[in-house]
Amino acid sequence: MENFTAYNPTKLHFGKGVTDKLGETVLEFGKKVLLLYGKGSVQRNGIYEKIVKQLHSVNAEIFEFSGIKSNPLVDDVSEAAQLGKLNNVDVIVAVGGGSVIDSAKITALAIANNTDSWAIMKYKFKPQTTIPLIAVLTLAATGTEMNGAAVLQNHETDEKIGYVSSLNYPKHSFLDPEFTFTVPKDYTAYGVVDLIAHALEAYFGEGEASLSDRFVEVIIKEAMEYGPMLLKEPQNYEYRANIMWAATTALNGLTNYGRKSGDWGVHDIGHNISYLYDTPHGATLSIVYPAWLKLHKDRIPERITKLGKQLFGTSSVNDTIENLEKFFKSIDSPIRL
Amino acid sequence: MENFTAYNPTKLHFGKGVTDKLGETVLEFGKKVLLLYGKGSVQRNGIYEKIVKQLHSVNAEIFEFSGIKSNPLVDDVSEAAQLGKLNNVDVIVAVGGGSVIDSAKITALAIANNTDSWAIMKYKFKPQTTIPLIAVLTLAATGTEMNGAAVLQNHETDEKIGYVSSLNYPKHSFLDPEFTFTVPKDYTAYGVVDLIAHALEAYFGEGEASLSDRFVEVIIKEAMEYGPMLLKEPQNYEYRANIMWAATTALNGLTNYGRKSGDWGVHDIGHNISYLYDTPHGATLSIVYPAWLKLHKDRIPERITKLGKQLFGTSSVNDTIENLEKFFKSIDSPIRL
């Protein structure tokens, strides 16, 4: 086992009605709120109204920035940061999935350090401080609600890249599984793929970490059991809840403790595909993972076989890859470009 | 799944040589250190010397309290708190297993609130603050290094009871598996039993929590795989590391998220046995758990069978219990009074 530090400062509130505490939580940090969200879907499904009601209940002053894309752009972050700086906001409330919350993390850094968002992403400027971020999650997928990572793309420099900092952890995250009831089937499936891919990136990383391997295996089992059931019953609370919590645990540190690092090769390729074709992130991963496994099967045959044994009861590399493909196909996530 | 809050503020440093950062970590909080430990074993095995060297390296002023018993007493805590108050210490460094760290948690509360330790334990006084605690773990067992629980006994009131508070989390915990190399075989085995029992208390608690169940199952599998190997090779770093990390994860929240609560009936009985006969905590649990399962087997047959299927590949309640007994016997932990 490699040396590691286990530390996760996010306070995560999970369950039905948890955003009833959002207003009082915001007050811990101040009254001037930068409210970030993406498309109008949060307005159509009533989540926006619930959040704004909470903010009004504590007389918060709201500065709103919306329109964050599902493959989020640094330009939007820079604009949001400008709005935040201009109005001297105390706290960001980000309502959405990975795109919105990732954007909010960099917005918070850009505001607190009065600096350029892309300079942060490229590690050219090293922030020492940030402003508090409260996340309200509406999509189970990326795990951003309980980690320090953010991914953005830049059309000027032709890049989609990730940035990791201990400053990025949300202070609070609110996860109400009911908030994901209206996520369409395709994005529900991509979320399941994304969480499986996160667990796999850890599994195929460097270093021996027995218990972390076991955590990876059961998180994927959970996703493979409840993912398909959820696609049949998108409004089933228990299924939504199980997938939502599995997605958080797949990338909140747990699967990685005791390793040197995860692999992240598949995500790198996936980001490039998303950049080129604006493909949903999860969909790129179900395409790339089987291909990546085929490419690396002579380098890490035991590891792939161990995974297959745990997940599918198989005993060969090829059977493992085939079963993984079959699973992705079964939930209608693409496996070829 | 029940609503829950996932939050654990402890920063846990795991691996070979991690206490090399102890000195600078202490300085985050101040220079006046109350150093708590138990018996002279930390002096014999060189750990005491390493810790004191770290404290001297940052010119810390050390106030020492030793002699904490393995079934820790509130009287010792009160004395330690007096020493701490008298000298206005900034931080506690607790070097030991569960007894020492649990004692340190209540000592910290008693110092910060200038109040009686037992009043805290009995929830008669509700502390609002504490002083920082840094834990250096020398025994893999209780999980106290990353949770808010403490257990003490009181010979005046004839009680051994637990106290849980969010103030109790150590600020930092240092877990160097090498620090457990000299733990004797019996206490190594009791530690393995203790961590399994913690996972089981969650498993048999109230509420459906699918992923937490899976975490329980793999933590116990890890313990059942590496426990016996460790007893054969007590100085094997990987085995010590795997058991140490398993013990932390068995009671740091992970196994309980999504449940109403754990059961904790077995621990309650175990505490009473320990109180009456001064039996090591882990040894009481391997005695009580099989008996408890027999008592409850008609109430929760599916749950016991599910556990047995995962751990032993069995398919009946009786086979599960029998196999659990066999495991405890195999590592020489008692199964009868």
Q: What sequence of helices (H) and strands (E) makes up the elements of chain A? A: EHEHHEHEHHEEEEHHHHHHH
The description of the largest β-sheet of chain A is:
6 strands, parallel
CATH class of the largest domain in chain A: Alpha Beta
Q: Into which percent range does the helicity of residues of chain A fall? A: 40-55%
Q: Count up the domains of chain A.
A: 2
Intertermini distance of chain A: 37 Å
The computed structural class of chain A is: alpha/beta
**Beta-strand residue fraction of chain A:** 5-15%
Oligomer: homodimer
Mean pLDDT of chain A: 97
Output the strand order for the largest sheet of chain A: 1-8-5-4-2-3
Shape-level CATH architecture of the largest domain in chain A: 3-Layer(aba) Sandwich
Poorly predicted sequence stretches spanning 5 or more consecutive residues of chain A: none
CATH topology of the largest domain in chain A: Rossmann fold
How many beta-strand segments of chain A? Answer: 8
Question: Radius of gyration of chain A over alpha carbons?
Answer: 19 Å
User: Tally the helices of chain A: what do you get?
Assistant: 13
Instruction: Count interface residues per chain for the largest interface.
Output: A-B, 42 and 42 residues
Shape of chain A: globular
